Amino acid sequence: MCSVTDQPPTLLVCINRSASVYETFIGNGTLCVNTLCNSQQALSNLFGGKTSQEERFAAGHWESGVTGAPLLEGAKLALDCKVTQSVSVGTHDILFCQVVDIKHQDASDALLYFGRQYHHLPGAAAAV
């Protein structure tokens, strides 16, 4: 996921066409990018593995966003989007997604994953 433009607010999401959520994203034309808090590491592990969609969504508390996409309650940041364009490249599609609603929590620490391990970014540092 990365930013494309701020007018209109648009980001891109790259997804393998063999991913279990691919047909859902394409069929619904919506998705929500939920950025996790440090306390949500277990949920990150579920979504990052081969766990079924049913098990993944049973683990968190969810609400429907403006687009109808699932927003994780307590997420650090939720970007509720409608898919406006899709481009196929190799095994993946690049989804261009217009952000239609944003929810965020300033006080919580963000969960980051790099170098094959989890790290957290303190809430105060995220506001800099």
SSE blueprint and pairings:
Elements lengths: L1 E5 L2 E8 L5 H7 L1 E6 L5 H8 L4 H7 L2 E3 L5 E3 L4 E13 L2 E13 L5 E5 L2 E5 L1 H4 L2
Antiparallel strand pairs: 1-2, 2-7, 3-6, 4-5, 6-7, 8-9
InterPro entries: Flavin_Rdtase-like_dom, NADH-dep_flavin_reductase, Split_barrel_FMN-bd
Keywords: Oxidoreductase
Protein name: FMN reductase RutF
Structure characterization notes:
This protein is of the alpha+beta class. The chain has one domain (2-126): Electron Transport, Fmn-binding Protein, Chain A (Pnp Oxidase, Chain A), CATH 2.30.110. Helix content is 20%, strand content 48%. The chain has a five-stranded antiparallel beta sheet, with helices on one face. The radius of gyration is 15 Å and the shape is globular. The protein starts with a strand and ends with a helix. The model has no long low-confidence stretch (mean pLDDT 91). GO terms for molecular function: FMN binding; riboflavin reductase (NADPH) activity. Keywords: Oxidoreductase. This is FMN reductase RutF.
List the main descriptive attributes of the protein structure presented here.
128 residues; alpha+beta; single chain; two-stranded antiparallel ribbon; 9 strands; Pnp Oxidase, Chain A
